[in-house]
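We emphasize that the prediction below concerns an isolated chain of 724 residues; any contacts that depend on oligomerization or on bound cofactors are therefore not represented. The input was used exactly as deposited, without trimming of termini.
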Amino acid sequence: MSRRVRRKVARRGKEKVVLPSYPEVEDEVIGSEKNEVVDWTSLPDDTVIQLMSCLNYRDRASLSSTCRTWRALGASPCLWSSLDLRAHKCDIAMAASLASRCMNLQKLRFRGAESADSIIHLQARNLRELSGDYCRKITDATLSVIVARHEALESLQLGPDFCERITSDAVKAIALCCPKLKKLRLSGIRDICGDAINALAKLCPNLTDIGFLDCLNVDEVALGNVLSVRFLSVAGTSNMKWGVVSQVWHKLPKLVGLDVSRTDVGPITISRLLTSSKSLKVLCALNCPVLEEENNISAVKSKGKLLLALFTDIFKALASLFAETTKNEKNVFLDWRNSKNKDKNLNEIMTWLEWILSHILLRTAESNPQGLDDFWLKQGAGLLLSLMQSTQEDVQERAATGLATFVVINDENASIDCGRAEAVMKDGGIRLLLDLAKSWREGLQSEAAKAIANLSVNAKVAKAVAEEGGINILAVLARSMNRLVAEEAAGGLWNLSVGEEHKGAIADAGGVKALVDLIFKWSSGGDGVLERAAGALANLAADDKCSMEVALAGGVHALVMLARSCKFEGVQEQAARALANLAAHGDSNSNNSAVGQEAGALEALVQLTRSPHEGVRQEAAGALWNLSFDDRNREAIAAAGGVEALVVLAQSCSNASPGLQERAAGALWGLSVSEANCIAIGREGGVAPLIALARSEAEVQRWRDLWLPWHWHTCSMAEWMNLR
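Result of the prediction step, given as a token string:
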């Protein structure tokens, strides 16, 4: 759903910036207390519970396991009022083990169909709020059972990905089983019929917030029967009959906020709703192409109501809701959150607007429509930064994901818009993202790290991230037990490691060891985290000092393990590139021979030259080229079938990229230093393809450069994808 940026080549520089270390916990020892023994079990129960409330679930469980007293405190109902299972594989057995602690569970977040099937085994009869994502495989039967077991539900949200297997039957079940329902937001349902909506209107008298987002068909007339609704969103929904909408919805007696963003609504419907509805105060119509046509803008009549569209000043419009005008309109959300005298109705409007705007902006960033550069620079970036400071965790996450996504302007080569990235930096976004990354909530950590990684493609932003202590924060997150957090942190270190000035700082922050440990920790089932960890290590290995750090941390063994056993092409490429860079320092350290002597290394690289993926073949040939500068490696490569493999590669790459041609020829040249290998190359038919490759190059200098080892090949995630 969201984009990650993968970068590539950077030049070798001279300076290194070594940042100070900022540990997470700083011990203060004062005077006579220096030698005293601290008895943690003597802490008051309230203090221990407060400490536990600041930990994630995994750390809380670890702390609870230290003694009986803390185990009992760890089961306190106040610590289990909410539960976020998105980062965990929640099957029936896990749910059953948690059941004894979930009697008073009020709020639950989950991910995927397997977790959904397990929810009923938590036995959380008092559950009030349920939110799920990655819901494509959830069926009517599963959802019906969930709502039947949780009749006290007041809020149900499924999305933003499409609920493809949920139908109107499940919506009817929700109406029948959840009479206390106040909020219902569902995404991507094919059809929501009138009977289902009428059931909600009849059986859920407290239903005030409805969101049917990105649906295919919704019964407009039936929605006009939900007289209790105050906030309604049909953003992204297709096939809306706007004539019916304009005739029916303005009669809803309590409707305060309406969202029709990302639809084909026109100016006539908008004007009719704004002028005819007595209760409507805010209408969101962002990214509506028909409405935004130049000839239609002047036709919109708002009659003093608030219209939020791409052609309006959103911050100014929001500021107009408040009697006291804010000094800086861009601070309208912050001023509202800090306001002591809050109006209940206005508070509900602003809370709804935060959720709606975060959803709209993320969806718009994902679709990446043309012509929005001006909006993103003048309003979009500022809105996302404001929403990142929301008290609603899901709003914060979507805003961070939106920042990670909107800077990406081309999915094919994963390039970013420097203007957008620098706009985030200038508005204080780096500090905000780093603060989110330090949150104990792993969902926020993951999305913030992803945004930092993408933004760091820009050299100026990367420098700001480093100066703000971001390298230390990412190195800490790379040690997370949560794979998603570790993966995004590794991506951030990959992008930052492009800059020569950041390599030393990453090593000093413990980043090298953290990246190597990631490979061992997620050696199976974590292709994304493995590719990012290997890519970052490949960049770091281009530096002489850092290459020694990689070797000392066990990086050679880890990378060879990936080259031998991982089947994912991206991981294979990065592992081979990292081994090539480690072997490029033959004149200054022993890594070249260390790679060659690692069990299975040469055989794995020879095998990778036969890969169906050109990028893998190229990196493997480059690694063999560098390794061939060591006498023992040269003979061992030949013994492992390297001559035959490289000749076949040279024969097959006449139409391949110059990079592959160069590395194939270079590897054969490196082996040809040995007389026995020269004979073997000739016997295998290697002379003819080498002559053909030489003739294909117009510049003689290029082939003079060929006789130098392929050296210090540094790249970042975006540039890597761009060159593949």
